[in-house]
Specification:
single chain; 288 residues; alpha/beta; Rossmann fold; Methionyl-tRNA Fmet Formyltransferase, Chain A, domain 2; 2 domains; 7-stranded mixed β-sheet; 7 helices; 11 strands
């Protein structure tokens, strides 16, 4: 690997504090100046619970960077022009970034998408990896273009999907380091002017929001693994989408199943027979 570039002005575009903290630390450790963290402003008119790490403020955000809340995506280009970045890194940001903003940084904007692109493009790729029964969660850094998750690939890797992990808070500590480990390769390619590997359409798929067709569990026709993956897929969707789920009949009541295991946890959790064996329901909520 050739000598790494240093001294770039880098902007981080992200909404998730547990991602931003190690990302900024890693980029700084590579010799670059992270000049700003840009994140979406939470709509004050919507009654939304704060994220698990709390609302972002000067008290809990990384020090030494400008903290910029953006009211709408149309403002991104002007904000970036004022920051004069060499590069912007996007990770965990839900807006489609306009082309005008993509054109501002000297080396463009590079996004981390948790899938093996072109498989599982879209907003909830981890959910679809589970729904499709994949063996791994992917990690892809790609150049951003005007569409979602279609830009040229700069680096990829993956981590195995583990049966015992049921939420992002369990998987994240493995997934985030896998993405950070690829950054030296990404920066080297950017410095060399490498355009990246264009994505083909072979194997491409869309990881869109979960809907009614996946919102009900049928203990008698689905396998234990299918149900376990279904429950986890809804957890990894973070409540986004037009409907909630998954719901099932348990002990004569309609419940929302939120955590399961394929092995007996030994704590007295209900055991339910499925089409091919037993699954254990660790957590549930009253159905609607």
């Amino acid at each position: 690997m050739s000598e790494q570039p240093q001294g770039w002005r880098v902007v981080v575009i992200a909404n998730v504090l547990p991602i931003v903290e190690p990302l900024i630390e890693t980029v700084r450790g590579m010799g670059h100046d992270v000049v700003a963290w840009v994140l979406q402003r939470r709509p004050y008119a919507v009654d939304m619970p704060p994220p698990p790490w709390g609302d972002i403020s000067d008290k809990n955000s990384p020090q030494g960077v400008n903290l910029i809340f953006v009211r709408e995506k149309a403002d991104l280009a002007g904000i970036l022009r004022g920051l004069e970045p060499d590069l912007a890194l996007c990770w965990g940001f839900s807006w489609k970034i306009p082309q005008e903003a993509l054109d501002v940084p000297r080396h463009g904007i590079v996004n981390q998408h948790p899938a093996l692109l072109p498989r599982h493009r879209g907003p909830i790729p981890l959910s679809w990896a589970l729904r499709e029964g994949d063996d791994v969660f992917g990690v892809t850094w790609h150049r951003m273009d005007a569409e979602l998750d279609t830009g040229a690939i700069l680096a990829q890797s993956s981590i195995p999907i583990l049966d015992e992990e049921t939420t992002m808070f369990e998987t994240g500590p493995r997934l985030v380091p896998a993405g950070l480990a690829l950054l030296p390769e990404v920066f080297e390619k950017l410095a060399a002017g490498d355009p990246g590997q264009p994505q083909g359409e072979e194997g491409a798929s869309w990881g869109g929001m979960l809907d009614e067709d996946y919102a009900t569990i049928d203990w008698s026709t689905q396998t234990a693994r299918e149900i376990h993956n279904q429950v986890r897929a809804w957890n990894f969707a973070f409540g986004m989408g037009p409907v909630d789920g998954p719901f099932a009949e348990l002990d004569g009541k309609r419940v929302k199943v939120t955590r399961t295991l394929l092995t007996d946890p030994g704590d007295g959790s209900p055991a339910v027979e499925t089409a091919d064996g037993t699954i254990w329901v660790l957590e549930r909520e009253p159905g609607e």
